[in-house]
Prior knowledge:
With 329 residues, the chain is of the alpha+beta class. The chain has a domain at 2-204. Helix content is 27%, strand content 23%. The strands form two sheets. Strands 1, 2, 3, 4, 5, 6, 7, 8, 11, 12 and 13 form an eleven-stranded mixed beta sheet that branches. The protein is globular and about 70 Å long. Pfam families: SUFU (PF05076), SUFU_C (PF12470).
Amino acid sequence: xxxxxxxxxxxxxxxxxxxxxxxxxxxxxxxxxxxxxxxxxxxxxxxxxxxxxxxxxxxxxxxxxxxxxxxxxxxxxxxxxxxxxxxxxxxxxxxxxxxxxxxxxxxxxxxxxxxxxxxxxxxxxxxxxxxxxxxxxxxxxxxxxxxxxxxxxxxxxxxxxxxxxxxxxxxxxxxxxxxxxxxxxxxxxxxxxxxxxxxxxxxxxxxxxxxxxxxxxxxxxxxxxxxxxxxxxxxxxxxxxxxxxxxxxxxxxxxxxxxxxxxxxxxxxxxxxxxxxxxxxxxxxxxxxxxxxxxxxxxxxxxxxxxxxxxxxxxxxxxxxxxxxxxxx
Length: 329
């Protein structure tokens, strides 16, 4: 466990079988529920001690509903690896996952050939929010989506896409059950939904509030300094050029936080999930975001000081670079 110095931030994940409701189009499915993002102990070892009037721990737990295959007798374990990866992101960044957020995973969630390669977040329709002696806890459900659905959420908003998914038969029902065998997007099933998204973008714009990305920068000497040095000296100096890297976050919208290294490291220990996943998290405009170091440590003194550079060359990962204009718009 994370509180005992282990690699997994969640204390445990409970698995339940839900027989569904055929009359309401809810298929039998496996229901996964995390424990550990909220305060389970109240002793200050993992989360700050709180009371019933404040959020418990991070204020939420994760859930996931996976459609049960006809001949399946036991639940797959790969959803637990996905939930641990998301929880590790939360613990390391302090950023909260809320309804409307989306996660770019960039590979099939179960390491198959499935088109379900990304995730949206919504409030679990059955569990909702509960009050405990250590504070309130909201159950945030992971919903597997296709690339086109993720892109629509980025350009418009996650909750809007969630509502559209509920309206499409056999896509997830009111419980938004993830079907890894789903081969069509909601826009292929019902082309009119694309028009609804376009109208939403035109009238409401994107709900992306900002982009949190892995960013590196390199300082470069000015031309005047180079002119004062002989060629051999410049060659020596070029070898000593200081390259400074730091993980920084730009203000967020649906907030996109790239944590490729975090995901790869976690999935290296979970063979049921692709070890080449490149995960990035985007937060809704109403999300609570932390601007602390992604490592969770105190900022070094040199990062608190103001520095001035003649030239700065910034490098962002591709997806953050694509989404950044939406956040700045």
